[in-house]
Specification:
This protein is of the alpha/beta class and 122 residues long. The chain has one domain: 2,3-Dihydroxybiphenyl 1,2-Dioxygenase, domain 1 (Roll). The protein is built from 3 helices and 7 strands; from the N terminus they run βαβαββαβββ. The chain has helices at residues 15-26, 44-47, 73-82; strands spanning 5-12, 39-42, 51-55, 63-70, 86-94, 98-104, 110-115. Strands 2-3-1-4-7-6-5 form a 7-stranded mixed β-sheet.
Length: 122
Amino acid sequence: MSHKIVHWELMGPDGGALAGFYRDLFGWSGESPPGFDHYDMIPAEQAGIGGAVGQGSADTPAYLTMYVEVDHIDAYLARIEASGGRTVMARTVLPGMVTFAMFADPAGNLMGLVEADMPPAE
């Protein structure tokens, strides 16, 4: 597995205003998936790598992060913690969409992991 960056997020306290800023600046526009208000998915054709601009939670109101594809999130979170990082959000499954987690590296940078789709067991 090559561990590619597969997604990015730019999040802030006012997702609509932030999306408008990037739409006006770079022409990035997208739509929010059902149930995800203020989370505009920006296609790779517009930004090089697909990502999202949106509204963060009250706990993390503004951040920029990248998501790296891995085969087993829990194994990587263990490696991260053993190397001086910390888990910010444990492995989380959004059915039919994505399985992800977030961590802080030793310098405090927020990063994400996306679990690669595993082939069905035979």
